[in-house]
Amino acid sequence: MSDDAVDPEDVRHVADLARVDLDDEEVDRFTDQFADILESFDRLDAVPEVDREEELANVMRPDEPHDCLSQEEALRNAPESEEGHFKGPKVS
To answer: Where is the sequence biased in composition, kind Basic and acidic residues (predicted)?
Structure first.
């Protein structure tokens, strides 16, 4: 994968959606890191498939009900909320 696989404007867009302010140096660094990550996924595509055992066992614990947060507690640290819901940036 080439270094041009990730555009700095894409990095800025993702940062805006995540409400993270990045300076130009950070954008350049993250652009390179995102390109490296995508390259790693390309390498995974080259790994051959292997046969797996047909018998699979569920090793997960059973679900157990627990008390949940109140709406007020859940929204306490939200940067914005509206009518009892999380409010996020408009995605365009």
So the answer is: 61-75
Beta bridge partners of 55: none
Domain containing 8: what range?
3-43
Encode pLDDT of 75-91 as tens digits.
999 999 999 999 988 88
Give CA–CA dist 27/29, Å, rounded: 5
Please indicate, yes or no, if residue 11 is contained in any of the structural domains: yes
CB 37 within 8 A of CB 69: no
DSSP string, 21-64: ---HHHHHHHHHHHHHHHHHHHHHHTSPP----S-----SPPP-
pTM of the model: 0.47
Pairing of strands 85-86, 81-82: antiparallel
Give me the number of domains the chain comprises: 1
